[in-house]
Specification:
This protein has helices spanning 3-15, 23-30, 34-45, 49-67, 72-78, 84-95, 99-104, 106-110, 146-156, 221-235, and strands at residues 126-130, 133-141, 165-172, 185-192, 201-204, 207-215, 245-251, 263-269. It is an alpha+beta fold. It folds into two domains: 3-110, Arc Repressor Mutant, subunit A (Orthogonal Bundle); 126-269, Multidrug-efflux Transporter 1 Regulator Bmrr, Chain A. The chain has an eight-stranded antiparallel β-sheet, with helices on both faces.
Amino acid sequence: MNLKHIYNTRNYIEMHYNQIISINSLEDISSYSYRNLQRVFYSLFKETIGAYQTRLKIENGYKKLLYSNAPISDIALEVGFADVQSFSKTFKKHFNFSPSIARNQKELLLNDVHPQQTISPISEPEILFIPEKTVYYSSCKTSYINPEIETLWDTLLQNEFSEPITDFFGIITDDIVITEKTKCTYEACITTEAILKNLPIKKIFGGQYARFFHHGCYETLEETYQQIFGKWFLNNNIEFSHLPVIEQYIINNGNCDNPSDYLTAIFIPLL
């Protein structure tokens, strides 16, 4: 099994989820017949290709409902449905409520901070354009639990690198308020001048982002996300993109012995 080709195929589906994807294009990218590709894809990701593409459509539609002000009819077309009726029908079948209800419950869903918690407010982010970067990556299914992510990084860093790693990124592919925990994906990404033939590559960034900073250990990252989505986003007239959130591990366990001194940049994609 050529995992690199399979990951490249999945990345292609993610990039073109809202378009008609031909069997020929999937066969060319994967180097498998479509029948064998379906079998391998399901064994790795526990979804058929068709189910995966449909899930991307409705989950990205949900993100647009929450984080943008676009009309529901426009969102339906943007994520690849023929009309708002087919989008609403598929959305309701998956989530058990309509797109309009999803949008109306935005504040309740995002402001999920327990009253008894006292979380220090975050600083205002810097809005900046980040040029596109090419990264090597490895991924795992996780509900964003640190031990699973640490194991993924340990495995990735066991590769031999002829050149130093210049940056470490984490791709938060899914939104935990939308995606089932068993289907959430995290991608550990590195940039290096070395050529790694056994790892897949993809492009990240290439757009406008709000950059926040998290100071301290990874166990408290959730508190910073609560401030970003439950406070800052709801209190500002700004729209987020449906693209993944990206973390950059600037000060980490590779260059610091004290987790309380870790520094993580959080890049929120903007429209």
